[in-house]
Description:
Layout: H1 43-51, E1 56-61, H2 79-85, H3 87-90, E2 96-101, H4 103-106, H5 111-118, E3 126-130, H6 133-136, E4 139-141, E5 147-150, H7 157-172, E6 176-182, H8 188-191, H9 194-207, E7 219-223, H10 232-241, E8 244-249, H11 256-266, E9 271-275, H12 286-293, H13 304-318, E10 324-328, H14 330-333, H15 336-348
Parallel strand pairs: 1-2, 1-10, 2-3, 3-6, 6-7, 7-8, 8-9, 9-10
Antiparallel strand pairs: 4-5
Helix pairs in contact: 1-15, 5-7, 7-9, 9-10, 10-11, 13-15
Organism: Aquabacterium soli
Protein name: DUF72 domain-containing protein
InterPro entries: DUF72 (IPR002763), UPF0759_sf (IPR036520)
Amino acid sequence: MQDDLFQQDPTEPSGAQEAVPQPRTEGPRKRPLSGVRPAAQTPEIQHLGTALPRGLRLGTSSWTYPGWSGLLWDGEFSEPALSKHGLAAYTEHPLLRTVSLDRSFYRPLTAAQYARYAAQVPDDFRFIVKAPSLVTDALVRGEDGRGMQLNPVFLDPTLAVQEYVQPVLDGLGRKLGVLLFQLSPLPPQWLNRLPEVWARLDDMIKALPRLAPEAPDAVIAIEVRDPQFITPEFAELLKRMGATYCLSLHPKLPPIERQLPLLRRLWPGPLVCRWHLHRKHGPFGYAEAEKIYAPFHALADPDSDTRHALAKVIRATTAHGQSAFVTISNNAEGCAPLSIQAMAQAIVYPA
């Protein structure tokens, strides 16, 4: 990859060229609830937390894993206890400034549910929230995940606002970081008619309320599972919509290097990235990864090539004053908190 991945826009003020690492400033932290206590962190992790670019938010996919005891939790806690009360302890970790709310993909949440999450985190924390599959999946699926029929409300603008965007804004407010529309793999009926999918996507994004009044830091990001989307035409569509591409590190898609040309076409702009699954497991390897990596307390399969490539993209983005939201799953290397720590080291101490 070229040394400067994202050249500075000539209209951008020169003062935005570098994000100087500084201690974070934020409101008082909420204390952990119901006895879920945060684990003490080493001086090295504390230092990394202050040395990371201020525009960067690292996080994980959910926070409900008992296997993170000693890494995030000071003690043994059940998954139900962590689901209800672990978020406040999660935010005590110096490297964790965002989290992906994946629960909303499976069933729309209410504004009151989002507000309960917002009440547990400090002012400087931001959420990445997935749109319900009701809106973003082209298929209606059975309990086994298999598609049964075409979804008649796929990318429906009214449904997207009522069941997703408005409750998120009402509940999270300024603590919203990313509205994430993850398009599930398309059936052949739609994959062969991509311009129609793009037209639907365009209509839906145009119908969304303005985010800035309620959530000034918020970004709209589109994540895909079909490599056919990774084209100059799709990049131009995203530009017109005022959205960005979610860099998705998943075996269904090309490696990071082959997705970067799309990001370059969107420059300057924020980075949204989700690292899902180690490539060794293949496009349908979630069950295998879960079986091998559980209880997710160790880096079982370190992927230094992907980590250092992503670290380079993060540095290039934040050095020009742009924000970056990056989450890592347990299934990427075996343990999301340790992946986050390794990623922070690769950013602060480039090889």
